[in-house]
Amino acid sequence: MGLVVDRPARVLGIEPYFMQLISGIQDALADGPAALLLQVTDDSAAEYLPSSPQVTTPRT
Asked: Which molecular-function annotations from GO does this UniProt entry contain (predicted)?
C-alpha cells in the first residue's frame, strides 16, 4: 500500500496524529501480505503518484 503524506518530514515527529496514523496502518498490515510504502513530501511531488492515497492537512 502506498501512502503520500504532504507535510515536511520534520512535522511528522512533532504532530502525534501522523505517528498514530502510520503506526495504525502498519499494525493493520502486519499480519497480511501487504506492506506500507511511505512517501513524505512538502511539495507537489504527490500529484505524480495518482494511485496512492494522499494525506493532507491545512497549513497554518
From this structure: DNA binding
* Residue ranges making up the domain that contains 6: 2-55
φ/ψ of 34, rounded to 5, equals -90, 160
Q: Judge whether 35 and 29 are in contact, CB under 8 Å.
A: yes
The enclosing H or E element of 34 equals none
pLDDT category, 27, cuts 50, 70, 90? very high
50 within some domain = yes
Digit-coded pLDDT (tens) for 4-14: 777 788 877 78
